[in-house]
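From the shared-data thread, chain only:
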Amino acid sequence: MPDRDWYTDHVPRNWRGVARRVEQGADFARTGDLALRALTRTLRETRGVSGMDDMIGIVREYAAGGITIPEAFAALRQANLRAGGSELTEFAKQAAESTIVAVARGEIRGDLAHEIRCRFIERAFEGLLFGPARWRWVLCRFGTDQEAHDWQRQCNAFMAPRMGKLAGALVRHPSGAGLRAPSRVSPREKTADLISQPVG
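Structure, as tokens:
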């Protein structure tokens, strides 16, 4: 099977270019630029994240002492179902659940909505890019699964400030319309390099 077909079969359309660049040795800056653009494009196409605001409200209710953790988790499951249970909505539910756990442990005292959106972005990267492509990267770039996970953690840490900017932009553009990725930090690629890349 040709290399390009592997990504076509295993990685969502908007994310294949990013996955190929990582295999070819993209650094944290280039990976971050491409991943943030891919997520922004995805959110514009899906018209945002259905159910996100309801989930944020549930986390806030828990943090205020209005409901228990089991009640909050049950409410999140219901919110996910009401919103249609899409892949992005499932990522939002996971982000809300992990935020509740962090609140219970006393690890978060700031803006809960911003925290949930940042965690959503990190889970979207795992579900749409890192998770689907990791096996291939282990074969072609990283020596072990652990090395690939370590690289991912470092990449997420490098992207964290711009993840925060995108989380803020989601407040202003909840439907995805007009949403733009944060400014790039890597140099623009040369036309000759772009021409040599597979399409799709």
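The CA atoms of residues 17 and 199 lie 8 Å apart.
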